[in-house]
């Protein structure tokens, strides 16, 4: 696993602008943004992009990941199919914080048609600032991981 604070970002064609704004934002916060695209608005398939980002997190190449599509739902579902990934969709800062503190999530999904840029950046900040609390939550995270076996 890398020592640098690396975060992978990916989206479908409908969320490029928001993804790029988030990449610039996390870079300004000291993260290395690994933006794996796409770069054009030509129609793409969100499962491909969700999987690609999730594989970089699961391999340890990136500590965390942020994926985006229209609602955030489809790309989140694809990311969660990769073993070791715990990704959740958030449209508010409380859920983003809880996603990390209680579920030890390693990926965040956002809906570009659901949240505006200002709220999206606040959600990203809440996600990145939170840390897993462990304790009783560790048992539950272990139970989720066991479902992958």
Task: Produce a short descriptive summary.
The chain has 149 residues and is of the alpha/beta class.
Low-confidence stretches: none
How far do the termini sit from each other?
22 Å
Radius of gyration: 14 Å
Order of helices and strands: EHEHEHEHEHH
Which sequence of strands runs across the widest sheet? 2-1-3-5-4
In which range does the helix fraction lie? 40-55%
Question: How many strands, which pairing sense, and closed or not: the largest β-sheet?
Answer: 5 strands, parallel
Structural class: alpha/beta
Overall mean pLDDT score? Answer: 96
Report the strand count.
5
DSSP strand (E) fraction?
15-25%
Per DSSP, the total helix count is 6
The 3D shape can be described as globular
Key features of this structure:
alpha/beta; 5 strands; globular; 149 residues
Overview of this structure, please?
The structure is a single chain. The protein is α/β, with parallel strands linked by helices and 149 residues long. It is 45% helix and 16% strand. It has helices at residues 16-28, 46-58, 73-80, 93-101, 117-129, 136-146; strands at residues 6-11, 32-35, 64-69, 87-89, 107-111. Strands 2-1-3-5-4 form a five-stranded parallel beta sheet, sandwiched between helices. Helix 1 (16-28) links the parallel strand 1 and strand 2 (32-35). The model has no long low-confidence stretch (mean pLDDT 96).
């Amino acid at each position: 696993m890398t020592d640098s604070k690396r975060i992978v970002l990916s989206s479908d064609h409908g969320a490029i602008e928001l993804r790029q704004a988030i990449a610039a934002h996390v870079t300004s916060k000291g993260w290395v943004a690994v933006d794996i695209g796409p770069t054009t608005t030509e129609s793409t398939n969100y499962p491909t992009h969700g999987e690609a980002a999730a594989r970089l997190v699961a391999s340890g190449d990136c500590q965390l990941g942020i994926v985006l599509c229209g609602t955030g739902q489809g790309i989140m579902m694809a990311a969660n199919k990769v073993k070791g990934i715990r990704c959740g969709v958030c449209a508010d800062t409380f859920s983003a914080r809880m996603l990390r503190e209680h579920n030890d999530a390693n990926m965040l999904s956002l809906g570009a048609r659901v949240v505006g840029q200002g709220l999206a950046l606040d959600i990203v900040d809440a996600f990145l600032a939170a840390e897993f609390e462990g304790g009783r939550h560790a048992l539950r995270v272990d139970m989720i991981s066991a479902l992958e076996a």
